[in-house]
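Is this the right way to post structure tokens for a design question? Let me know if I should format differently. Anyway, here goes:
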């Protein structure tokens, strides 16, 4: 099996307040964050960083050497979260999104 996927949730008082999904690609020993979302009322409390760290740990446990993510160039909250957690811009794609926004690719060596 070349690909593995895991879904993580953050709960507070029995309610889901955030989630993340990461895929592991064994063929090149990489991980890709597919989704990372924290409910607006729970942001800026470390939940996104905790989910991200959990996904990084999962990626390392499964042999990934790098973890990557893409986001729109104007998604400042996401960019701030990733920069704060050691990610660096590694590329861009002007055609990824159909809304004409440029996608930035971010990566972090594990």
């Amino acid at each position: 099996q070349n690909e593995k996927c895991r879904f993580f949730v953050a709960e507070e008082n029995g309610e889901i307040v955030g989630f993340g999904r990461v895929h592991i690609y064994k063929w090149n020993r990489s991980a890709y964050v597919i989704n990372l979302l924290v409910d607006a009322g729970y942001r800026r409390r470390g939940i996104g960083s905790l989910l991200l760290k959990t996904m990084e740990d999962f990626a390392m446990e499964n042999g990934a050497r790098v973890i990557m993510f893409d986001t729109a160039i104007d998604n400042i909250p996401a960019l701030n979260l990733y920069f704060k957690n050691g990610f660096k811009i590694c590329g861009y794609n002007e055609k990824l999104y159909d809304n004409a926004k440029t996608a930035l690719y971010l990566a972090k060596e594990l």
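Format looks fine. Someone answered above. Worth noting: The two ends are 22 Å apart (CA to CA). The first helix runs from residue 47 to 61.
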